[in-house]
Amino acid sequence: MAPTLKACERGAPLLVLIVPVFNEQHVIRHTLPRILEEVRIEVQSISSDAQILLLAVDDGSNDSTRNVLIDLAKRSEGIRFIGFTRNFGKESAILAGLRCSVVRFNADVVVVMDCDLQHPPKVVGVMWSEWRSGCQLVEAVKRDRGSEGPLRRFSAGLFYRTFSRSSGFELAQDTDFKLLDRNAALLVLELGERNRFFRGIVRWLGIASVKVYIDVPPREAGASVWSLTDLALYAWRNITAFSSAPLQLVTLFGIGGLTIGFVLGFKALWDWWFGNAVDGFSTVILLQVIFSSLLLISLGVIGSYIAAIYDEIKLRPHYILHPDDLEKMAETERLGK
User: Fold this and answer.
1) How many domains does the chain have?
2) Are 297 and 254 in contact (CB under 8 A)?
3) Angle at 189 between CA 37 and CA 109, to 5 degrees
4) Cβ atoms 77, 37 nearer than 8 A
5) Is residue 276 part of a domain?
6) N or C: which end of the chain has fewer CB within 10 A?
7) Whole-prediction pTM value?
8) How far apart are CA 38 and CA 91, in angstroms?
């Protein structure tokens, strides 16, 4: 494998914009060129010799997204793309983008951002300035949650509070919109877990960061592909990936059940001592409902961790690249682009 030239050999720093896409055929045709152009204007106004490349990562879209990306790549020298054989998830798309940018393109700086313009491209200029001043990590943080509905706002708040208390990492209003220099990106790539959470991983590394606050504009077109069920499952996987606190709930359930048992037992003895009839049937039903529920919840929590362990020990790759993209990437390396 013959990687492209590094910054010192190119004579100019290379910034790669990593943009995961999934079923965004109606959005990316005009947003990707716009993102690239706006970032070029902002960054090159600071560093006129900077090179900017947009790398779209198609997460196994089942619409015409791939065809649109092929057309965009033909029209623009600054747009490249890779794609998966199926949908592996946004986290895998970010990982593939980081790996391709750093290992194959030898990027000096990478920026992870969305394709729908809810991550304002002009902010990349501010991020670039912070990197030029020596910062390895620049994170975009939302001032508010934009046009999200009350249910999504409540769900997001609940997730971040739960994640913070269970893991010890504060991620409130955090986003995937981040700038990482080459060294920070390599640290992210060194972590080998299968169940990845980009925001949590970056925070876990403990790299000093600069925060840039953004207002979230309305989505350019279409609707989010994330349903509330998808978000709930995603949140649970991320919490269990970064904390064993849910396992401690099993112990708390046991203590709570034992306490309830003592109370009911004391009440039964009290009624017996004073000659009152004890409604044994109701007591037995109540105890069965309580302890059966606690046992099933506990088994569910333990099962989540066992499933995560099972996924880890299989050591399957995080993603499979489309065969055509592997050939194109090899050709790109030979040409030194």
Assistant:
1) 2
2) no
3) 30
4) no
5) yes
6) N
7) 0.74
8) 25
Instruction: Output Rg (C-alpha) for the chain, integer angstroms.
Output: 25
- 331 Cβ neighbours under 8 A, 6+ residues apart: none
Residue 299 identity (one-letter amino acid): L
Residue span of the structural domain in which 280 resides:
245-314
Nearest Cα neighbor of 321 from 100, 29, 19 is 100
Q: Under a CB-based contact definition with an 8 Å cutoff, are residues 7 and 50 in contact?
A: no
For residue 180, give the 3-state DSSP assignment.
strand
Distance CA 230, CA 220 (A): 22
Q: Is 2 inside a domain boundary?
A: no
Q: What is the pLDDT of residues 278-322, one digit of tens each?
A: 555 566 666 676 777 777 777 777 777 777 776 777 777 788 888
DSSP 242-307: H--HHHHHHHHHHHHHHHHHHHHHHHHHHHHHTTPPP-HHHHHHHHHHHHHHHHHHHHHHHHHHHH
Residues 73 and 177 in one domain: yes
- Give the whole-angstrom CA distance, residue 308 versus residue 320: 20
In angstroms, rounded to a whole number, what is the distance separating the alpha carbons of residues 82 and 46? Answer: 29
> In this predicted model, what pLDDT tens digit does every residue of 236-254 receive, in sequence order?
676 666 666 676 666 677 7
Letter for the amino acid at 310?
A: Y
Distance from CA of residue 143 to its chain's centroid?
A: 19
Do 255 and 225 sit in the same domain of this protein? no
Helix, strand, coil shares of the chain, percent, nearest 5, are 55, 15, 30
> Which residues 6+ apart lie within 8 Å of 185 measured at CB?
98, 101, 102, 107, 110
